[in-house]
Amino acid sequence: MRARVLARPPATGGLRPEEEGPGPGAHRDAPHRAVGVSHRRPQSGNASAKAPPPVAAHVLLIEPEPDLATRQGHHLRVAGFRVDVSADPSAHPHAGGQRYDLVVIDLPLPNGDGLAMLERLLQRADVPVVVISATADEAERVCGLDLGADDFVSGPVSAGEFAARIRSVLRRRRLSIIAEEASTLTAGGLTVDPVSRRVAVFGAAITLTALEFELLLFFMRHPGQVLSRGLLLRHVWGPGGGDGSTVTVRVRRLREKIEADPANPRLITTVWGIGYRFSGSPAVPGPTGQPLRWS
Prior knowledge:
The chain is α/β, with parallel strands linked by helices. The protein has two domains: about 15-180, Response regulator (Rossmann fold, 3-Layer(aba) Sandwich), CATH 3.40.50; about 185-295, Arc Repressor Mutant, subunit A (Orthogonal Bundle), CATH 1.10.10.10. About 30% of the residues lie in helices and about 20% in strands. The protein has helices at about 65-80, 115-125, 140-145, 160-180, 210-220, 230-235, 245-260; strands at about 60, 80-85, 100-105, 130-135, 150-155, 185, 190-195, 200, 205, 225-230, 270, 275-280, 285, 290-295. It has a five-stranded parallel β-sheet with strand order 2-1-3-4-5, sandwiched between helices. A four-stranded antiparallel β-sheet has the order 6-7-8-9, with helices on one face. The chain has a three-stranded antiparallel β-sheet with strand order 10-12-11.
């Protein structure tokens, strides 16, 4: 059974007729097999399913069944979100240059591989994921949350509550990003202050271009991870930023400023055929504070 926005209000209550769905194309007479997101209004007079978030967050809704995708997408748009719908459970959250703020995935999937697909989704991109399911038991909910889902919504829930849960996840992510962006990073003799945008190598200040700074910051926030040139282009340069050779040139220039021996780098190492890894290997400073040799 699939989680769905009902085409008809439940007997215990429902939305006003103008809020029931997006129109005649929504298949109003389709039988309801399960309740995932219902049409019931929030009980509080201060809450509203139409209250938009401060910024229109961009949501990717992964829902293989077209009628459910239409209804759920409609209610998310009513709540103030920008919504794209994909019927492909393997859709990449950043495919085609899109940068989504959050992904909603409806489980179980038709092939029954929902939790495995959820795990692959969480591994592919650093984006909040909210799972909705009408059939998940406690073990499945626990597993989904342990895999990294930011919220797991099961059973009957109003459209207003579901939108509020998404806003709550987005608020938590924003606060996490703010805290992360304000934290000074240190590794391998490097000190990077994201707020003042100052960089020092063993206490000696160095000057980086704006792009070099963002590139170094991205490396230091993902220590030990293999970062492909394509991934670096997407996250540091953005759409239309260039090709792999652009990354190669910028990494070489960055190494010349932060490495003790740029020809034999120890901080940003090359993973042949893929990209780079920031290792943060500790360096031993010389008496002047400059790195002379590596331990």
